[in-house]
Amino acid sequence: MKATPVILLTIGMVTAFGQWAVAQDAAKTPDQYSPADLTALEKTLGQKTDATGTATETLKKYSTDYTMLAFRNKSGKAELHEKFADFYVVVEGQATLVTGGQMVNGKPTAAGEVRGESIQDGKETKLNKGDIVHIPANIPHQLLLANGHTFQYFVIKVQEVN
Question: Which residue has the higher pLDDT, 74 or 17?
Fold first, then answer.
């Protein structure tokens, strides 16, 4: 007589598998944000700014990239991400993006992250609602705002492979 394999599944195992299957399906569905969604989320961020005039919220993390929303009511520091490129989609407002050049007094603030006072000899680009910009990894960049202005943008951070 041949032995028949028996598979025992507990309720916990079935539940865990079900949660895993749902997570797998969710990972395969696209994320969609309407302009109205982003504007509403950005308004709540505007009430959460820190001393630098910035508020951010990570929306979703993936294996090599993540999305976030950002709000500014002041110019930002110069920054550089060693391993991540940034894509900005301007939701509201105007700013000047300074890229390239040399970061002034840059210091590491976290692994792969550098912040500085400003950028010297960089290229200035005016950003307005609807604009999309790509900033490759290892490029110093800084957002400058006119006094009293605000700037809201959707960010996609993508890990670059060397």
Answer: 74
pLDDT tens sequence across 22-45: 454 555 678 888 888 877 787 788
pTM (2 decimals)?
A: 0.78
Non-local CB neighbours of 67 within 8 Å, separated by 6+ positions: 31, 58, 59, 60, 154, 155, 156, 157
Q: Is the separation of the CB atoms in 70 and 156 below 8 Å?
A: no
Measure the CA–CA gap between 101 and 116, rounded to whole angstroms. 12
Tell me what pLDDT residue 19 has.
52
Q: What strand order describes the sheet that includes 95-99? A: 107-110, 113-116, 78-81, 141-144, 95-99, 123-127
User: 33-159 has which fold?
Assistant: Jelly Rolls (2.60.120)
Q: Delimit the domains of the chain by residue range.
A: 33-159
pLDDT of res. 26: 52
Euclidean distance between CA atoms 8 and 89, whole angstroms: 51
Strands (E), the chain: 54-61, 65-72, 78-81, 84-93, 95-99, 102-104, 107-110, 113-116, 118-120, 123-127, 132-135, 141-144, 151-159
Q: Can you read off the two tokens belonging to residue 81?
A: 């991400």
